[in-house]
Backbone:
């Protein structure tokens, strides 16, 4: 009898807790649908900022809660009629460096995808300030630029490339002191040589730096496989902490995908980014997915947000994609 009563009380308390979370401090996924491809989020000054691929311009949205991003105002911070960077605008990311916000993004021409290159905008002290186009960063095919920071080495730009290799791989190059240029050699740090990276066609793309608080280790999460397959997934590279980051030998690849679809109706879970909770105690994983069981590379992809856990050995534990019905508490304030 006691156990039955105990279970009933626990169930009631659990239901009450869920009601309190969902009515006050919870959000549900997806955060942006459609138009949620290649999402990147950051938190600063009481606001969450969200960018994703729009194909034609760079837009930034902000809200004081994750749930609020669903209906948040979007501000266009870049569009251009210049033929070499007018179109196929992909994967914009905000980064705060030396007191200024920058947006790194991919753009090319309107005729094909052969002219894709990386570009940079300079903003102000707030991520919501206006941005000015500064420069094209690369002169050979490159997409999905992101900033990675290394103690003792400085800031680098990681991106997807074909630099002297047959298949789409990951490159790394030193970011200039002005944060709007690249310097030094280009290093190919990962190629899609494993069988689990070759579905559809061999691909490594969408790098994102991850800094684990528990161990102080630095990782690069990236997307493997072709996006028009359900096998598009996240994998990781772990930096050894001492070797020049542009050297392939500095990195150890995960033994397969660390985050995959085929769960809760989500497929093609990839091209992610990370942000810290307002109090700094949590790391959150922001990624896109599709409901198309064959995978998708188009605008039907949607943005998902869920907390990243830490394994007992201090390595990242990505878990599995959460259901749309899951009520997630807002990040720790």
Residues:
């Amino acid at each position: 009898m006691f156990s039955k009563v105990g279970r009933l009380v626990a169930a009631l308390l659990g239901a009450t807790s869920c009601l309190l979370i969902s009515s006050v401090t919870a959000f549900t996924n997806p955060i942006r649908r459609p138009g949620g491809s290649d999402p990147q989020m950051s938190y600063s000054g009481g606001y969450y900022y969200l960018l994703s691929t729009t194909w034609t311009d760079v837009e930034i949205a902000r809200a004081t809660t994750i749930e609020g991003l669903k209906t948040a105002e979007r501000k266009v911070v870049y569009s251009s009629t210049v033929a070499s960077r007018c179109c196929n605008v992909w994967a914009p990311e905000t980064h705060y460096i030396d007191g200024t916000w920058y947006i790194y993004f991919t753009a090319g021409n309107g005729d094909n995808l052969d002219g894709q290159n990386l570009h940079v905008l300079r903003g102000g002290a707030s991520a919501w300030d206006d941005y000015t186009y500064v420069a094209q960063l690369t002169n050979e095919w490159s997409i999905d630029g992101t900033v990675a920071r290394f103690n003792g080495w400085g800031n680098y730009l990681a991106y997807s490339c074909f630099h002297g290799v047959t298949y789409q791989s990951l490159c790394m190059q030193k970011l200039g002191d002005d944060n709007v240029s690249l310097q030094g050699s280009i290093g190919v740090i990962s190629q899609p040589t494993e069988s689990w990276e070759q579905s559809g066609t061999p691909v490594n793309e969408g790098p994102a730096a991850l800094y684990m608080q528990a161990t102080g280790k630095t990782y690069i999460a990236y997307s493997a496989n072709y996006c028009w397959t359900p096998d598009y997934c996240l994998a990781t590279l772990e930096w050894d902490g001492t070797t020049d980051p542009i050297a392939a030998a500095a990195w150890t690849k995960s033994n397969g995908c660390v985050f995959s679809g085929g769960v809760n109706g989500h497929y093609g879970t990839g091209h992610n980014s990370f942000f810290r909770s307002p109090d700094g105690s949590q790391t959150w994983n922001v990624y896109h997915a599709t409901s198309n069981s064959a995978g998708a590379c188009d605008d039907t992809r949607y943005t998902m947000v869920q907390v990243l856990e830490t394994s007992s050995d201090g390595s990242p534990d990505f878990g599995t994609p959460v259901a749309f019905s899951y009520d997630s508490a807002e990040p720790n304030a």
User: Anything to note?
Assistant: The mean pLDDT is 93. The helical segments are 2-25. The CA atoms of residues 241 and 303 lie 32 Å apart.
